[in-house]
Amino acid sequence: MLYDLLQDEEFSVILKNHATDIIEYLFEKNQEFGILVDLNAVTFEPMLPEEIYKNLPEFTLFLLMNYTYESAHLEDGQLSFEAGFGPQNFGSKVTVPIEAIVQIIVDETPIFVNLTASIAKKPKPKSSMEALLSNPENRRFLKKED
C-alpha cells in the first residue's frame, strides 16, 4: 500500500502543493529555512566547477539565509536562489523543482517531509513467482497436474 501511495501522481501533487504553501508562508513570515533536495533535479546557472559539484552529496542541504534567502523566490513550480560554493564562493543561481524538495527545515527541525521526492516513478515490483515465471525457461519448474 505504501509503495502504491508513493508512486501515485495525485499524492505527489498534494505534497508539491503543500511544500509550495509552506515555502510561501515562510517567505510571508520572513523566516529563513533550509531545504534538503535531490541533487539530480537541481540546475545551476552557471554550472558549478566539476571539483565543487562532484563533492556535493546526492541529497544536499541548502540553507536559505542572509543573501541566499533574500534572493530566493518561487516561480512556475520552482524555488530559485543565488548561492556561493567552495572556498572561492563561486556564485551560481540554483533552481530546484518543488517536487525535488525532500525536507523543509527550520531551526534544525524538519517541518515538511516529502517521501515521494526521492522515489523514481517505476513499475510495481513483481512478486517472486511473477519474476520467476517471466523467464519462459523457468516454466518447466511448474508442477504439472495430471
Structural notes for this entry:
This protein is of the alpha+beta class and 146 residues long. Helix content is 29%, strand content 31%. It contains five helices and eight strands. Mean pLDDT is 86; it is low at 121-128.
CATH superfamily: SspB-like
The averaged pLDDT comes out at 86
- Bin the strand percentage: 25-35%
CATH topology: SH3 type barrels
Instruction: Give the second-level CATH assignment, the architecture.
Output: Roll
The description of the largest β-sheet is:
4 strands, antiparallel
The backbone outline, from C-alpha atoms, is globular
Annotation, overall tally of beta strands: 8
Number of domains: 1
Question: What's the SSE pattern?
Answer: HHEEHEHEEEEEH
CATH top level? Answer: Mainly Beta
Unreliable spans: 121-128
Query: Widest sheet: strand order?
Result: 3-1-7-8
Helix/strand-derived category reads alpha+beta
Estimate the helix proportion, in percent.
25-40%
- The first-to-last residue Cα distance is 38 Å
What is the CA-based Rg, rounded? Answer: 21 Å
SS element count, helices: 5
